[in-house]
Specification:
The complex is a heterotetramer, with two copies of chain A (about 230 residues) and two copies of chain B (about 230 residues). Chain A has about 230 residues and is an alpha/beta fold. Chain A has one domain (about 20-230): 3-Layer(aba) Sandwich (Glutaconate Coenzyme A-transferase), CATH 3.40.1080. Chain A is built from four helices and 15 strands. Chain A has helices spanning about 15-30, 100-105, 145-150, 210-215; strands at about 35-40, 60, 65-70, 90-95, 115, 120, 125-130, 150-155, 160, 165, 165-170, 185, 190-195, 195-205, 220-230. A ten-stranded mixed beta sheet of chain A has the order 4-3-2-1-5-8-12-13-14-15. A three-stranded mixed beta sheet of chain A has the order 7-6-11, with no helix packed on it. In chain A, strands 9-10 form a two-stranded antiparallel sheet. In chain A, strand 6 (about 120) and strand 7 (about 125-130) form a beta hairpin. Chain A is globular and about 50 Å long. The two termini of chain A are about 15 Å apart. Chain B has about 230 residues and is an alpha/beta fold. Chain B has a single domain (about 15-125, about 155-225), classed as 3-Layer(aba) Sandwich (Glutaconate Coenzyme A-transferase). Helix content of chain B is about 20%, strand content about 25%. Chain B is built from six helices and twelve strands. Chain B has helices at about 15-20, 40-50, 70-75, 90-100, 110-120, 185; strands at about 15, 30, 55-60, 80-85, 105, 125-130, 140-145, 150-155, 160-170, 175, 190-200, 220-225. In chain B, the strands form two sheets. In chain B, strands 1, 2, 3, 4, 5, 9, 10, 11 and 12 form a nine-stranded mixed beta sheet that branches. A three-stranded antiparallel beta sheet of chain B has the order 6-8-7. The longest helix of chain B has 13 residues, at about 110-120. Classes of the chains: A alpha/beta (about 230), B alpha/beta (about 230). Chains in contact: A-B, A-D, B-C, B-D, C-D. Chains A and D meet through helix 2 and helix 3 of A and helix 5 and helix 6 of D.
Chain lengths: ~230, ~230, ~230, ~230
């Protein structure tokens, strides 16, 4: 069973895997029992592993599964894939839906939360996560609809990109959506997007507030009291 | 580790009819699925009448025939406003309209379905050729798109949607029998609270995931309603 | 089996039932094998009885049946009704659909023909068939969508209302739709709506052209040769 | 009297793969259902490649992964223009884009589904909040509705839609397995000619009318395509 708190570590222990686990564990605590949730590819897919006891969420795969599940080795079917195109399953009590219905659920505000990565987030809650002009043009897939439609949009990402801040006063990359992000969870802390800007509400105790602020290009208000994200 | 694959999500959606209609208050906007009574949530409508709410705004494709299904809400003077596509087979509607007791907005049936769908799918409105040049278009904006004109009809949502399904599992997944699906499908998407009356509550897995029509995530409460007209 | 021609009668034999049969028989010849068709309540529902040999149509009930059929005594189910709210069936090979899907088929141009009655039709193809202000306000039901969406809109009606013309230079009642009618079939003849106005293409031989024109308030061009509608 | 209840409507929809792809000509706009190859009509795509058509405009949610399903049309340089929501897992797309051989219009996945649905349902466009303030909105009109702004996205239609179903009866009624329904459902409504590849052609009645997802009236031709990956 999951313990819903990550162990406190020292900075030297923060390798890639540990960072991802810290972020996934913390995001998992944002989800409530019964929530209908869409998780982006990569890190967000780790979140179900860290749900607190008694919390079950209904995962969507936006290509057409309500109550999506994994797929054991040898159980792959050419008929069931998830939104990453990987073999998947529909759990008992779930449903297969078509894409118009799926995005009706998403755009229509029926989804409690979506968790996804970002290239940049800014203090207005603007999100850039789909294109680097002249370089990466994979297409937005379902991301634009998800961040516009979900009730809570949680960005789960490493705080910086090779040391460069990703949390900015204003995104410089083309946006995925305007003023859509509610919460940013990184390995350094938890940041709420409020009408008055970004508020650091929890910190990873291996970092100081000054270190978090230094790694953040946008202005951060520090909540009092400041909680621990672990 | 707890993963989502360990066990089905727990459901506490199954409630009594009385608990279900406790979510409907006087003055609310209520959608009720069905077509001429077929696919109305009959038990929930009965309970709503018994509860004595008034001044409802009802969104329904029709008002059924006297004494059957949603007709009762008209006959018992529970409505202040009505959105419908057809009211001709329930004379109480015309009587109350003429007496100034009931405001009626008539809406083409396809437009009504699409407005509700838009309300449930987060769309800003419906661009339809239906109704252009008719009284339906009065006072509504039009939009020119590639040389064609379309009427802009606004989305419809409700505080509560009352729907009916033949088989509903404990997570709220609905399978409809015959023509009962009609407006139930779109209405399940377009209200803050969705109450589904089941002719039969079935175990998880009884409806193959391919044959679920309304996914359970849309349904808040399930009432075991019994069967209209037997079997 | 149906003979696809009505017998030629004299005027005295034209009672209500015969009139309806003449109209239904003639409209039936407009339908092609495999056509997807919606028939309004009343007279249009008689049309399937007169389909020529080898012609089968797929009837829609817009409340949710593709390939709708009748319902024998004792076979009524509270779960299956047609667009008139009457007990009905879905034939083998048909489908039950929801209302948004149904009107998607209708509005989207997937329906080959719809046949319905009228209070008034005019020479621009405008149709009035749903409201008499201050008198009859039943609601338009699905009629407005049907006449806008179907590929062929056929009005099947008695030529006059108690002697008063129903085919007018311009409708005086509120419209159901603008310029939607393709063909008018009455007990007196068959009238095509063309960009140049109304053309009488076939006549019921018990009437003279003068009689048809006299019963028609709109101007009629008479096709040469003028066929028989029977 | 012949009534419609005497016997099922006759079907001549079942054709060979070669006959089916005869309806696709160079320069046409083609929609192909599927998501990362799952639910692609694999046999029809193969036949289309073999036929040698070029300059197609393809509407598909993605371009799959190398060598699988619709990816082949890219790899064999059959496309002039592409509407898609995601092309990142098929490197041939970026290569051809950068070489100026392929024009790509990226469209949010939900907007793409809704634009196709609008095309099939006779709606003038889609009013969506998705894409506002992003490059997707460039050059497109917006509409203000009750104080909120929506992007007006135009309907999409095609000359031919190629879809895939698990069970298809001889009238063209389709039942989809698993996640294969994805874009197949809306695409079946939005093309002049609809060709459906069946994993299994089944007798009339084998799909209960309640469980039909795409009604046969939408399908013009059926190809018995066999099964992707066995069973």
């Amino acid at each position: 069973m999951a313990t819903d708190r990550a162990p406190v570590l020292d900075k030297a222990s923060l390798d890639k895997g540990t960072i991802r686990e810290i972020i996934a564990r913390r995001v998992a605590r944002e989800l409530k029992d019964g929530d209908f949730v869409n998780l982006g590819i990569g890190l967000p897919t780790m979140i179900p592993d860290y749900l607190p006891d008694g919390v079950r969420v209904v995962l969507e795969a936006e290509n057409g599964i309500v109550l999506a599940g994994g797929c054991g080795a040898g159980e792959e079917s050419p008929y069931v894939v998830n939104a990453g195109g990987q073999p998947a399953s529909c759990q008992v009590g779930g449903a297969f839906i078509d894409s118009a219905t799926s995005f009706g659920l998403i755009r229509g505000g029926h989804m409690d939360a979506t968790v996804l990565g970002a290239l940049q987030v800014d203090q207005a809650g603007n999100l850039a996560n789909w294109i680097i002009p002249g370089k990466m043009v994979p297409g937005m897939g379902g991301a634009m609809d998800l961040v516009v439609g979900a009730k809570h949009v949680i960005v789960a990402m490493e705080h910086t990109q090779k040391g460069a801040p990703k949390i900015l006063p204003a995104c410089t990359l083309p946006l995925t959506a305007v003023a859509c992000v509610d919460l940013i969870v990184t390995e350094m802390g938890v940041i709420e997007v409020t009408p008055h800007g970004l508020v650091l509400t929890e910190i990873n105790p291996v970092f100081t507030v000054d270190e978090v602020c230094a790694a953040t290009a946008a202005e951060l208000t520090v909540a009092e009291p400041l909680g621990s994200m672990l | 580790m707890t993963t989502t694959t360990d066990a089905p999500v727990t459901s506490h959606k199954l409630v009594s009819v009385a608990e279900a209609v406790a979510h409907v208050e006087s003055g609310m906007t209520v959608m009720i699925g069905g077509f001429m009574g077929c696919g109305n949530p009959h038990q929930v409508v009965e309970a709503l009448c018994a509860k004595g709410v008034t001044d409802l705004t009802l969104i329904a494709t029709d008002t059924s025939r006297p004494g059957y299904g949603v007709a009762k809400l008209v006959e018992q003077h529970r409505l202040r406003k009505l959105y419908a596509s057809h009211v001709g087979l329930n004379p109480a509607v015309a009587t109350q309209m003429n007496a100034g007791e009931l405001e009626v907005e008539l809406c083409p049936q396809g437009t009504l379905a699409e407005r509700i769908r838009a309300g449930g799918a987060g769309l800003g409105g419906v661009l339809t050729p239906t109704g252009l040049g008719t009284p339906v278009a009065d006072g509504k904006p039009t939009v020119e798109i590639d040389g064609r004109t379309f009427l802009l009809e606004k989305p419809l949502r409700a505080d509560v949607a009352l729907i009916s399904g033949y088989k509903i599992d404990v997570l709220g997944n609905v399978w409809y029998r015959g023509t009962t699906r009609n407006f139930n499908v779109v209405m399940a998407t377009a209200a803050d609270v969705v109450i589904a009356e089941a002719d039969h509550v079935v175990p998880l897995g009884a409806i193959p995931p391919e044959d679920v029509v309304t996914p359970g995530v849309l349904v808040d409460y399930i009432v075991e309603g019994g069967v209209p007209g037997g079997d």
